[in-house]
């Protein structure tokens, strides 16, 4: 009788906690309504997030139609559900990919998320994974390259400059190769949150991009091999300090990617990791970015000079690709430098890609902490430069 009473008490406590948990989730969901993801760009299938509730340790969550459940809820029957982070899962992508696909494509999986999941808005979203290496492809959208050439020239010569640049791009497409730089993974920041700008950062510009996440390894890959190593995709905003691209003390040496693309927190990533099987044609993806509600960038990936597999194949000729590597694949026309407007405190940027989700970054002024270090982990949602 005593055992039965204890069991009854435990069951009662479980349901009491569950009810309280759902009530709190509903309240938090309302509080965070401004950070909700636009349904128009939400993934159609189940995607992965690295997230947690309040002060809980982040874990992998399965996300579908605005609700989420921890992946470990399936750990009893599915070995692929026993990973603690998306980073660890991607590191073993080759061995778990097929099983994970079976799990997320089961109708009962999405039904369970719908019935038992919590609102996504109640989660503390982190970057979906921590890349091992980060590569950025430069000048890979035709209309952006043409736009930059016209902006840099005489307005009276706009037509001639556009035609000449188009011809040069066609020649590069036939005879050239992608232009890729290596950058720091310390730049990675969550997709939703605040970025504090130091006073001397006055030319910070936006670049919404498709992030290709590598799940295999290899070098000197053919195009089919390069496509096969893609584990999935993420939204990326490759924030760049324009005034630091060219060094005034060394103008003849070209671009300084460390200074202009090295700022901590300048690579908002996510919010989701979207498996590659959900993106049958990356060239059809639509990329959009708005500043304070005004559209700045809006184009599709079919404007790329070099496709994503072509970029990866080229990259693999010069360095070995490994699981967890991230390639930022270029950004469409509409940079801040074109609009004559750079980011400043008080701005809000929304960056989205059809089927991959939406980011929401708010820019604030410098934050000062007692310690002189730039550790900012105690302030949720804040990244300092």
What is this structure, in a nutshell?
It is built from 10 helices and 21 strands.
Write the layout of secondary structure elements.
Elements: H1 2-31, E1 47-52, E2 59-64, E3 67-70, H2 86-91, H3 93-105, H4 107-116, E4 118-119, E5 124-125, E6 134-138, H5 142-152, H6 158-175, E7 179-183, E8 188-189, E9 192-196, E10 204-205, E11 208-214, H7 223-228, E12 230-237, E13 240-241, H8 257-260, E14 267-268, E15 274-275, E16 286-291, E17 294-300, H9 308-316, E18 326-328, H10 336-339, E19 348-353, E20 357-364, E21 382-384
Parallel strand pairs: 6-18, 8-14, 9-20, 9-21
Antiparallel strand pairs: 1-2, 1-5, 2-3, 3-4, 6-7, 10-13, 11-12, 11-18, 12-15, 16-17, 16-19, 19-20
Helix pairs in contact: 5-6
């Amino acid at each position: 009788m005593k055992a039965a009473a204890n069991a009854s008490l435990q069951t009662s406590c479980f349901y009491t906690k569950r009810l309280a948990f759902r009530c709190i989730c509903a309240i938090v969901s309302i509080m965070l309504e401004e950070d909700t993801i636009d349904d128009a760009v939400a993934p159609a299938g189940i995607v992965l997030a690295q997230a947690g509730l309040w002060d809980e340790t982040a874990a992998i969550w399965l996300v579908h139609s605005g609700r989420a459940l921890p992946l470990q809820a399936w750990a009893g029957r599915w070995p692929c559900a026993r990973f603690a982070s998306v980073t660890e899962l991607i590191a073993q992508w080759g061995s778990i990919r097929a099983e994970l696909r079976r799990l997320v494509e089961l109708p009962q999986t999405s039904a369970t998320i719908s019935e038992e999941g919590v609102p996504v808005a109640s989660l503390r979203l982190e970057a979906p994974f921590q890349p091992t290496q980060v590569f950025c492809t430069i000048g890979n959208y035709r209309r952006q390259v043409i736009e930059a050439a016209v902006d840099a020239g005489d307005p009276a010569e706009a037509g001639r400059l556009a035609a000449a640049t188009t011809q040069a791009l066609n020649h590069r497409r036939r005879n050239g190769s992608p232009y890729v730089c290596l950058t720091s993974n310390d730049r990675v920041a969550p997709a939703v949150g605040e970025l504090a700008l130091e006073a001397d950062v006055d030319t910070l510009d936006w670049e919404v991009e498709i992030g290709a996440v590598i799940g295999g390894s290899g070098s000197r890959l053919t195009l089919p091999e390069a496509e096969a190593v893609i584990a999935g995709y993420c939204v990326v905003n490759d924030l760049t300090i324009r005034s630091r691209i060219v060094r005034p003390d060394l103008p003849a040496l070209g671009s300084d990617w460390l200074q202009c693309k090295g700022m901590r927190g300048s690579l908002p990533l996510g919010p989701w990791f979207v498996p590659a099987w959900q993106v049958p044609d990356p060239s059809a993806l639509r990329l959009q970015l708005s500043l304070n509600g005004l559209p700045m960038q809006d184009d599709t990936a079919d404007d790329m000079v070099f496709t994503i597999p072509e970029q990866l194949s080229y990259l693999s000729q010069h360095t070995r690709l490994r699981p967890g590597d991230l390639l930022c694949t270029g950004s469409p026309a509409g940079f801040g430098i074109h609009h004559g407007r750079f980011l400043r405190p008080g701005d809000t940027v929304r960056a989205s890609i059809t089927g991959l989700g939406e980011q929401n970054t708010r820019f604030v002024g410098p934050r000062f902490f007692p310690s002189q270090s730039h550790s900012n982990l105690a302030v949720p949602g804040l990244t300092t430069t």
